[in-house]
Amino acid sequence: MNDDSVTKKLMFYFPKCVCDKPIIYHLVKDYHLIVNIYRAKVTPEEEGYLVLDVTGTEEAIQDAIDFVKTFDVTVNYSGKGVVRDEERCSHCGYCVPYCPPGALKIEDRATRKVAYNESECIECLACIRICPFGACTSAF
Amino acid sequence: MKTYEQINDRIASGKAVVLTADEIMDYVDKKGLQAAAQEVDVVTTATFGPMCSSGCFLNFGHSKPKIRMSEAWVADVLVYTGLAAVDVYLGCTQLRHGDPANMYPPGEFRYGGGHVMEDLVSGKTLQLFALSYGTDCYPLREIRTYFSIDDLNQAIMVNPRNCYQNYNVAINRSDRTIHTYMGKLEPHQKNGNYCSAGQLSPLLNDPYYETIGVGTRVWLAGAHGHVYAEGTQHAGGGARTPDGVPMGGAGTLALTGDMKQMKKEFVRGVSFIGYGVSLALGIGIPIPILNEEVLRRACVRDRDILAPVVDYGVDYPQNTGNVIGHVSYEQLRTGQIQVEGKAIEVGSLSSYPKALEVANLLADEIRRGDFQLAAPMAPLRKDAKMKPLVMREKPR
After folding, report:
1. How many separate domains does chain A show?
2. What is the DSSP-derived secondary structure letter of residue B116?
3. Which of A76, A98, A123 is the last residue of a domain?
4. Listed residues A76, A111, A126: the one ending a domain
5. What does the pLDDT look like over B137-194, one tens digit per residue?
6. Do residue A134 and residue B271 have CB atoms under 8 angstroms apart?
7. Distances (CA, A) of A114 to A85, B25, B47, B132
8. ipTM of this model?
9. Beta carbons of B312 and B171 less than 8 angstroms apart
10. SS3 label, residue A137
11. How far apart are CA A23 and CA B339, in angstroms?
């Protein structure tokens, strides 16, 4: 891997599944990207999604995105598969031990507020089930 | 030495010196106990967390023709109607009609009594459905209508048990995941949960109930309410540290307040997967600094407060009374405790940031002269013990 490689979180949204196209294969084989899939729902005749990290050069990632867009796929760069509603969060900290990558954590011991670092979220969805206040929701 | 009257006079003139229970320790360390006791009028304490023994009385007024509700549901949540014609009591742990509960475990319990209370305070429109057997004076047999809190004559929160003085740290030593009111507990004590505002919590700052008693005015989710009785299961007589801090649940408060005056951020329905629904409440209680002793006790720190670690896998459900050990809130706040040599990751169900917000809101109200203190009419019992329910096979 080149030194100038970067990692980007992407979300592919399929209005109707293009199941017959091996898209990920092409990302790896043709664009030399390292792919880490967090979440996917790929069912024929239904809406689908794919949340993944891609690692490669900026140029290769852009080319790969252009390739993906040739299909009926919407690409979202925000990476917000799991959203935390600031208004609903009570900052109790109950979610913290259940978050495997530590994306939800108490950063400042003085304020004890729960910080949510989206880039560390692996979309396991544990927080969505666990939060008593319903503060965490999934984009899908 | 100060009296309630003197402190209230200073509040009324906008000159009261008010600090939160979070600020007072450093202030006393700096100024010294004697000087601080003369200067400071009030220390505000607070808590925000799930409190299952909460609910409210609602009065709907009379329909035309009139009905004596014998069964009723608000937003599909059953309310108690064994009262006068159009009075009901809504409890926060009541499930919504048709909720599958734990039929396919663990249940999600997305909506229930606590959420209805949150929706009421938020001003949302809710459905009332009620049935009746019909009487000569109350002929209507059925009603379905829509209302918001403004349409009600009264919406009075009446909570038989709030503000537990201290609370358990729940762990699970069994070999399966369990779902409790203390959250999801992984087997083999992989994690633990605690639930107290610690050094900010009202009764931990007044461990011997010297200023908090029946009649004390409290900040209940933004409304000016009061303590109407000792809370259910109040047990002030348990073990204490040499400083007098209870080492277990101990004291509780029964609180009441006008829901029409409440703020929605502090009345929050909560769902615990595999367990049920409840209500998280924000409560603030002012402690008048009558003398040095009261101030000294209000300077309690997380490191001075010990919480019992209890196994919710066996000991809690089987009511063995067994306590594994004690840990301080200082340890709990680090996110990890040591129990018999093993490190356990812990989380909190009670929100310290929210409690701090309440303590500051109350302090501001007192400084502005908008919140007067009320001296207790009767003290809470210091020697009360909690009795178990005896299972008898026949009447005595």
Report:
1. 2
2. H
3. A76
4. A76
5. 999 999 999 999 999 999 999 999 999 999 999 999 999 999 999 999 999 999 999 9
6. yes
7. 12, 25, 17, 48
8. 0.94
9. yes
10. strand
11. 50
Which of A97, A111, A132 is nearest residue B191 as measured by Cβ atoms? A97
Closest alpha carbon within chain A to B118: A133
Residue among A115, A112, A63, A102 nearest B330 (CA): A112
Q: Note whether A98 contacts B333, CB cutoff 8 Å.
A: no
Task: Indicate if A70 and A93 belong to the same structural domain.
Answer: no
CATH number at residue A112: 3.30.70.20
Q: What is the C-alpha separation between B305 and B249, in angstroms, rounded?
A: 12
Q: Which two tokens stand for residue B292?
A: 């040095």
Q: How many helices (H) and strands (E) does chain B have?
A: 8, 22
| Alpha carbon distances (Å) from B156 to B127, B153, B223, B256 | 19, 10, 10, 7
How far is the C-alpha of A75 from the C-alpha of A66, rounded, in Å? 10
**pLDDT tens digits for B213-226?**
999 999 999 999 99
Q: Are residues A37 and A70 in the same domain?
A: yes
Cite the DSSP H helix spans in chain B.
Answer: 4-12, 24-31, 33-39, 113-121, 202-205, 292-298, 329-333, 352-368
- The answer to whether the Cα torsion of B117, B119, B122, B125 is positive or negative is negative
Residue positions of B annotated with a catalytic role: 137
Contact A97 B272 (CB under 8 A): no
Regarding whether A95 and A61 lie in a shared domain, the answer is: no
Residues A96, A70 within the same domain: no
Q: Domain range for residue A88?
A: 82-138
The mean of the pLDDT values for chain A is 88
Same structural domain for residues A92 and A125? Answer: yes
Alpha carbons B347 and B333: distance in angstroms, whole number: 8
Contact list, A129 vs chain B (CB under 8 Å): 108, 273
Residues A91 and A132 placed together within one structural domain of the fold: yes
Q: For residue B67, give the nearest of B81, B87, B86, B82 by alpha carbon.
A: B86
B191·A130 Cβ contact <8 A = no
Give the distance from residue A87's alpha carbon to the nearest chain B alpha carbon, in angstroms.
8
A52 backbone φψ class: left, alpha, beta (φ>0; ψ -120 to 50): beta
